[in-house]
User: Fold these one by one.
Assistant:
Number 1:
Amino acid sequence: MSCLFCEIVEGSIPSTAVYQDEQCYAFADIHPQAPEHVLITPREHIGSLADCIEGDHALLGHLLWTAAQIAHAKGLTNGYRVVVNAGEDGGQTVDHLHVHLLGGRPLTWPPG
Ligand code: 5GP
Ligand code: ZN
């Protein structure tokens, strides 16, 4: 099965790395929606938040923790947003779980 973000994690498709460790890979979004737009994705293939199992608790916590660490490292002291789109109604377009970190400008609410 071919998966865009698996290929990005493996390095066969280039990306701009922001952070990586044994569990996750974070990289710049190709179509940034804010001055800072980073995607944090698990190295293992998980299709969606909706596909997570109980054993993924720690990994999910790690993804959020990593988003907060990146926000801190990027100096987003005025705030930022963390988003997970899940499934068709959630607007998910790449079927490999990822957390969006958006910051660097005021973000409006509610989302579209
Ligand atoms: P989703 O809509 O699934 O929540 O988010 C997918 C994100 O992946 C989008 O923000 C989109 O811009 C980004 N994206 C899609 N293809 C690529 C790519 O080839 N490289 C990078 N860096 N980001 C991508
Ligand atoms: Zn994948």
Number 2:
Amino acid sequence: MRSKIVAGNWKMNKNLDETETLLSALSAKLPDTDAEVMVAPTYINLTAAVRNLESSKIEVIAQNMHFAESGAYTGEISADMLLNVGINTAIIGHSERRAYFGETDDILAKKVTTALEKGIRVMFCFGEELEDRKSGNHFKVVEEQLKNALFALDNAAWSNIILAYEPVWAIGTGETASPEQAQEMHAFIRKTIGEAFDSSVANNVSILYGGSVKPGNAEEIFSKPDVDGGLIGGASLVADDFIAIVKAI
Ligand code: PEP
């Protein structure tokens, strides 16, 4: 049985005080839900966030991690460092990491390997650019991204993978994939994984949609059979909006 998940990616937003305020509001307003609810504050506030949410069902996750065990990687954070402060899940492959920090499929494959070896669950992000969709290449691009980063895994590793399909043209733009476009791609992703691994891997992996999900469109997107939840950017920075999205799952 795959989980329903709603995760908030706070990106480079919220200082320590703002982090505490938002987390306290989220804990106070969190509805009773079977879904997994996660937030990804910036690195510097992870420890405070874990403490703040000690008695909450909300999981604190990381926005990124490095593939190396330790060493001369100025400015980077290792898997062990995350585990040591109580983080067990990391976002890997966000389109902003790919676009602004040169993260290639090869680098992402290494990060996934390290995370899984260390026991960190991976929320793997991928998705096509606008030109890919316009030229009809979106299925091919998505398949390549999955293949390059994840297809060397064995079946067992998939129990620690969450997928987040995020069409780049829909991230932070206010432009959302229609629920039908999301369903079409999610069904394609599940079929592709079923063919490369097996049907139980495909049926058990949670596939989240990300790209301008808001309280007003969440319910319709989440109603699609292959959409298992959402990775939320902008709307996760406002407690009432994020909670409304959690209620929509
Ligand atoms: C994201 O960055 O993962 C994202 C989905 O952002 P937004 O919801 O703001 O489009």
